[in-house]
Design a protein that fits this description.
The chain has about 220 residues and is an alpha/beta fold. The chain has one domain: Gamma-glutamyl cyclotransferase-like (Hypothetical upf0131 protein ytfp, Roll). The protein has six helices and nine strands; from the N terminus they run αβαββαββαββαβαβ. A hairpin with a 2-residue loop joins β4 and β5. The longest helix is centred in the C-terminal third of the chain and has 14 residues. The radius of gyration is 17 Å and the shape is globular. About 35% of the residues are buried.
Length: about 220
C-alpha cells in the first residue's frame, strides 16, 4: 500500500482569531483578563483593579514553544500556556473599556506574534464573585505544544534559549517569584526550576496551588 503524506494542519488566521476575541468582549464596557504568568508581573498597562482568581478546566504549564518572545527559530524557548485539565490560580485584571481596543491590540502584539494561542473567555472565580475573563489557552494538538520534555531538555532550554523579551529561565524564575509573592505555590514549576536549573532553588510556602489535579 502506498504511503501517504500527512495533511498539514490548516493555517491559523490571526485576524480571524482577533475578531473572535473582540466579539467575545462586545466592544462595550470594562472587561477582565486572566493573568497566569508574565501578565502578573508585567501587565500590559495599568489595570483598574486586580483580584486573585482561579479558573477551572485548565492548568498552567511550561509546554509551549516560543520562537520569538523567549527563544528563536534556531533555539526555541518556552512560555506558559493554559492546557486543558485541572485548575489554575492567578489574577484577573480589569481593563477600562475606554482603552479596551487599544489594550487588546497591544496585548495581541505581545502574546500573539504568531497566532498559536487559542484566546477564549473563561469564568474566573474570585472572592467577590465570578467574572468572565479573557485567557490564552493551548490545545495539546497544536504544533506549538511541546509534548513531554525531560529534565535535560528543560536544562538545555534554560541555559540557551533567549528571545526578544529575554531568556526562558528569567521568565520562569520571575513567574515563580511573583506567584509566590501572591501566596501561590506552583509545584510543577518549582520542581522544574529545582531539577533542571539547580542554581535556582526557591522554596516558598505552599498556600495556593496550580496543578493538573482533577477538579474537586
Amino acid at each position: 500500500m502506498p504511503q501517504t503524506t500527512p495533511t498539514p494542519p490548516p493555517a491559523r488566521c490571526g485576524q480571524a482569531l482577533f475578531e473572535q476575541m473582540l466579539q467575545g468582549w462586545g466592544g462595550q464596557g470594562d472587561f477582565w483578563v486572566f493573568a497566569y504568568a508574565s501578565l502578573i508581573w508585567r501587565p500590559e498597562g495599568t489595570p483598574l483593579e486586580t483580584r486573585p482568581a482561579r479558573v477551572y478546566g485548565y492548568h498552567r504549564a511550561l509546554h509551549m514553544w516560543s520562537r520569538v518572545n523567549r527563544g528563536t527559530p534556531e533555539c526555541p524557548g518556552l512560555v506558559f500556556a493554559l492546557l486543558p485539565g485541572g485548575s489554575c490560580t492567578g489574577v484577573v485584571q480589569r481593563i477600562s473599556g475606554a482603552d479596551g481596543l487599544n489594550y487588546l491590540h497591544r496585548l495581541w502584539a505581545r502574546e500573539m506574534p504568531n497566532p498559536v494561542y487559542d484566546p477564549c473567555w473563561l469564568p474566573a472565580r474570585t472572592s467577590q464573585g465570578t467574572v468572565r475573563a479573557l485567557a490564552f489557552t493551548l490545545s495539546r494538538c497544536s504544533p506549538n505544544h511541546t509534548g513531554h520534555l525531560s529534565d535535560s531538555d528543560y536544562r538545555h532550554i534554560f541555559r540557551h534559549a533567549v528571545g526578544r523579551y529575554g531568556s526562558t529561565l528569567d521568565y520562569a524564575r520571575q513567574t515563580h517569584e511573583q506567584l509566590a509573592a501572591l501566596g501561590i505555590h506552583d509545584q510543577a514549576l518549582a520542581r522544574l526550576l529545582a531539577c533542571a536549573a539547580p542554581d535556582v532553588a526557591p522554596p516558598f510556602p505552599n498556600q495556593l496551588h496550580s496543578n493538573p489535579a482533577p477538579r474537586p
